[in-house]
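In response to the reviewer comment on reproducibility (Comment 2.3), we provide here a single inverse folding case reported in full, input and output, so that an independent group could reproduce the run without further information from us. The structure tokens appear first.
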């Protein structure tokens, strides 16, 4: 039976495997966060444009 340390070491390829997991996690996180940020920015700009039109 394999130990947890062997799992973490990934048969000598740990750096490459964990780097790939890290990059994939970051990409997924960005794909979740960016639409929220862009929506807030869009709504803020839209509110400013409407305010300028009303003045």
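Designed residues, in position order:
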């Amino acid at each position: 039976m394999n130990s947890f340390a062997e799992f973490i070491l990934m048969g000598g390829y740990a750096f490459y495997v964990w780097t790939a997991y890290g990059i994939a996690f970051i990409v997924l996180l960005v794909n979740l966060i960016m639409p929220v940020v862009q929506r807030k920015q869009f709504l803020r700009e839209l509110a400013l444009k409407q305010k300028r039109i009303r003045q």
